[in-house]
Amino acid sequence: MKNVPEFFACRVFDDRIMKARLSSDVYRTLKQTIDGGKKLDLSVANAVATAMRDWAVENGATHYTHWFQPLTGITAEKHDSFITPAPDGRVIMEFSGKELIKGEPDASSFPSGGLRATFEARGYTAWDPTSYAFIKGKTLCIPTAFCSYGGEALDKKTPLLRSMEALNRQALRVLKLFGNEDVRRVTTSVGPEQEYFLVDRAMFEQRPDLVYTGRTLFGAKPPKGQELDDHYFGTIKPRVAAYMEDLNEELWKLGILAKTEHNEVAPAQHELAPIYTTTNIATDHNQLTMELMQTVAARHGLVCLLHEKPFAGVNGSGKHNNWSISTDTGVNLLSPGETPYENAQFLLFLTAVIQAVDEYQGLLRASVATAGNDHRLGANEAPPAVISIFLGDELTAVLDAIENDLPYNGGEKQKLRLGADVLPRFVRDSTDRNRTSPFAFTGNKFEFRMLGSSNSIACANIMLNTAVAESLRQFADRLEAAEDFRGALHDLLRETITAHKRIIFNGNGYDDAWIREATEKRGLLNLRTTPDAMATLLEQKNMDLLMSHKVMNEAEIRSRHEIMLENYCKTVLIEARTMVDMVKKQILPAVEAYTADVSSAAIAKKNLCTGLSCAYEKKIVQKLSTLTDQIANYSEELESAIVRVSGIGDTRQQANAIRDLLLTKMNQLRAVADEAETVTAEKYWPFPTYGKLLFGVK
Length: 698
Ligand code: ADP
Ligand code: MG
Known about the structure:
Helix content: 40-55%
Number of strands: 18
Bound molecules: adenosine-5'-diphosphate, magnesium ion
Strand content: 5-15%
Radius of gyration: 28 Å
Distance between the termini: 22 Å
């Protein structure tokens, strides 16, 4: 491979290129926009656009696009070429500041959840200069926000940027109280660990369920699954290694800090983690990573499955959102400090997160709710649908000591005097890593583990940033008004710990006893499905949070609620229709063919030698006939359920019916079809089995 530092970010219009290609005046103004959110005037935009075009054309680009993240959860782009006719009949390559700053794609085909009446089809995209432009294929991609003409956000980037701003605003207030006058900006950073499956493309194409829905809707368990734990961190097979090498190169060219790769728990499952970066950029990079994972797989005769649960019976795929808050002076506010003062500050930010997660459990759960993720959360898989925080024993003991005014550390210190004592360094203990917790403190960051593998990380971080901004707002209000800062801080911490410690749980999150304790004793939410979780989005307290921090207005919240539920309904309905189709066109004919051949074999045998019992054939024919009838019956029931559910006009009612009726019918049908698979000879089975899919890539 070529020299990585040499080609790293070679397709990104980053700071290095800007410095080299822009006049110092233009560069300085642009930097002010990037760092401080200052508005860009047109003459500067023109200069930037010209430099961007020259650089892009030199690097082989012919088109440009405003690259944005509509509410579908994937990215969208509409390509325009740079060509402009010249008077002599030839063309020149042009790109203006106006084209850089604003685009006007026809927005009518993107979901808006009622935000944009159909007669007002226009939306506009606006350049987000905090995320660098890059070249993908032959296209210059300009990261943008996407809004309706009324100014409502039709995308995920706009509220994310607003939530980062909200947190910045409140965190600065708090930091000032601790005397940090030099801090100008507070940002959140994220490192998302991305899980995925790789399967052989030829096999994938033989399975309509994978092609249409991204997950297997049928499939009996193979003799071997993940029980030996021999895949996790195992040797990477040559074909997979070649894929990872190629993927890394593509990601590095785009300036994405791909760092760690390994095999995951399930066979054919892998993970890629980048080095963390600013949340907004991490979000853009994660979208690009998911896209490249799929395009690079195609080059290797593979398919990358990003679905949360492509296979029943083995682990599904998630995405761990490692999140921290830091200052522009380089301080990680979730890192216990060296001095007593830093420690008091750390504890304040820590309790702000604890309060935020407890108060807004519902919003956090809703932010990761999709039909795919429902197969993981609350369905006997990591993590449960109940949100709790893992802090580890040491930190929990510190909070206990503060709450009860008790000596910390077995009486070694008299009392934990805030702002006076140095806390121990919380070294991360690898034996103490709780993998079952949905929200774990891991030394200097929190790891939110409920995200599904295909989720955009935007939604989770919007809710997390805003909820923490709200805690900090309350803390700042109270402390700013206090006469004795140290005393007020102590009281504030103590009261917050008492009020919200129910969310802290250091035990095994998979345990049924925990779910009972969480819901019955502690009153924590257990929102098992998407329709359950989505309802919380419209609760007044949650709407107030998002509105008061100007992250979303009421219309934007309602539209998202509508779109998420619609997505849920459409996804499951497509799955149900695919099942019926596969049963009728593939499974039943296959079972019939095998049954017929076994029957003919028995008849032939009897003709040859009278008196044979043909007990084996009889058993198989009987078993398969029974199963055939059951499959046909359940399939018919599923078909009528589809008709019934499709007729429900109200989205919420439809989603509930899908959860209660359709999914039940789908499970019943699958169970009998999977049983038939175990009885039918392999060569009759119409598509590749689990065994082949999961162990087929060498
Ligand atoms: P693991 O959780 O697998 O042990 P690490 O904790 O080292 O791995 O890192 C997981 C992810 O967390 C990586 O993407 C890493 O860049 C990210 N990360 C590390 N430190 C921080 C931080 N301070 N803020 C946000 N993300 C971080
Ligand atoms: Mg991790």
